[in-house]
Design a protein that fits this description.
The complex is a heterodimer of chains A (about 260) and B (about 120). Chain A has about 260 residues and is an all-alpha fold. Chain A is about 70% helix and about 0% strand. The two termini of chain A are about 45 Å apart. In chain B, α2 packs antiparallel against α3 (about 60-80). Classes of the chains: A mainly alpha (about 260), B mainly alpha (about 120).
Chain lengths: ~260, ~120
């Protein structure tokens, strides 16, 4: 994944006689037979990393499914607090950013430098828009005291009419105290899952910022696309996590 | 040695499949349509299926997750190039999905059958 293109001339390549240099592309490491082999190996490594990510998020998804089944009424009413409008908007933003990232990989493959910079910048901006919308949503939870902890308020669930915006849409019946307590668990999982997802976005956006500078310097339009390609895999993976979070957290509790 | 070099570059060119922007645009549109459909479906009561006494399947979450799975497959196959990747990559992705299903499936089947028949 490193962009370093330093290939020492002193390196002894297997099978090479004295004075005969094993020639290859400048970005091909000498321990690989071919560039294709190097690219495949790096790609495989990236996928292995993504498998660990699947298992990591898988634990959170499993916890969510178990508790949703146990405390079903609490999870249904707590999820009514989320605004489908913002969730849908963010899904569209993230899917579009995945598209611009995929186009970025294409630009790198076709060695179109300025188009690549444009694609990476668009992905960067869309990532920030996603986080901005997430911030609006988190702020609302903060204002309503729906962040788990000492200041958590069950008011919206013990007395739904005190929360007219949500009540007018869903007409939820009051929960018993025991069940209302478990809405806090929903919000805990909501923040854990979307927070972990947002952390991945922040890391991705930071790497994108670095990549925009490197792309301007022409680092990815030399035919060596591995870094852009593998970052694309990461970005699409984060998109897939959201594709599942959106229905699970926002949509499936309307009926 | 130079011949070998040319071969490796050629091999790389033929091996590395470049996905065209037309496919990316098609997938983007499909994903946006999928998003619209899943939001629309969530506003409709799709009913439920009483499989056995005490066991009910609600269609809304089933449909929502089926649409999400379809979207995921589109992203994996085309945006992540798995359709054009090596068998090793395909096997790796398959292994990931399989392990995830084991994680969720086994855990849920345990939790949901602990009180079997006692509800």
């Amino acid at each position: 994944m490193s962009d370093s293109q330093v290939v020492s001339n002193d390196v002894v390549v297997h099978g090479a006689e004295a004075g005969v240099q094993h020639e290859h592309l400048p970005y091909q490491r000498h321990h690989f037979e071919t560039y294709a082999q190097q690219n495949d190996a790096t790609n495989f490594a990236m996928w292995l990393f993504l498998l660990t990510e699947i298992m990591f998020f898988g634990g959170l998804f499993t916890a969510y499914l178990i508790y949703r089944n146990w405390y079903y009424p609490a999870f249904v009413q707590a999820s009514h607090q989320l605004q489908i409008f913002w969730g849908t908007a963010n899904t569209a933003v993230l899917i579009t950013s995945s598209f611009t990232m995929a186009m970025g990989v294409w630009c790198a493959e076709m060695k179109k430098k300025s188009a690549l910079v444009l694609c990476l910048t668009l992905t960067f901006v869309l990532g920030l828009v996603f986080l901005g919308i997430k911030f609006i949503e988190y702020k609302e939870k903060y204002d309503k005291n729906h962040i788990p902890g000492f200041h958590y308020s069950m008011q919206s669930f013990l007395n739904p009419q005190s929360d007219p915006e949500v009540y007018n849409e869903y007409h939820d019946k009051p929960l018993s105290f025991d069940m209302a307590r478990h809405t806090e668990l929903y919000f805990f999982l909501y923040f854990a899952m979307t927070g972990m997802h947002a952390l991945h976005m922040i890391i991705g956006i930071a790497i994108l910022g670095y990549m925009i500078f490197r792309a301007q310097a022409g680092a990815y339009t030399t035919g060596h696309v591995t870094f852009v390609e593998n970052f694309g895999l990461y970005w699409h993976f984060v998109d897939i996590i959201w594709i599942y979070l959106f229905p699970l957290l926002y949509l499936i509790s309307r009926h | 040695m130079t011949v070998h070099n040319d071969e490796s570059i050629e091999e790389h060119e033929s091996h590395h499949h470049i996905v065209s922007p037309r496919i990316y645009i098609t997938i983007l549109l499909a994903l946006l349509v999928g998003t619209a459909v899943t939001v629309w479906a969530s506003y409709v009561d799709l009913g439920e299926w009483h499989i056995l006494p005490g066991i009910t399947l609600f269609w809304n979450p089933v449909v929502a997750l089926a649409i999400a799975a379809t979207k995921m497959i589109l992203v994996v196959l085309f945006f992540m190039h798995v359709k054009y990747s090596t068998k090793l990559t395909k096997l790796t992705v398959g292994a990931g999905i399989f392990t995830f299903i084991v994680l969720v499936g086994m855990t849920l089947s345990d939790y949901m059958t602990r009180a079997w028949g006692r509800w």
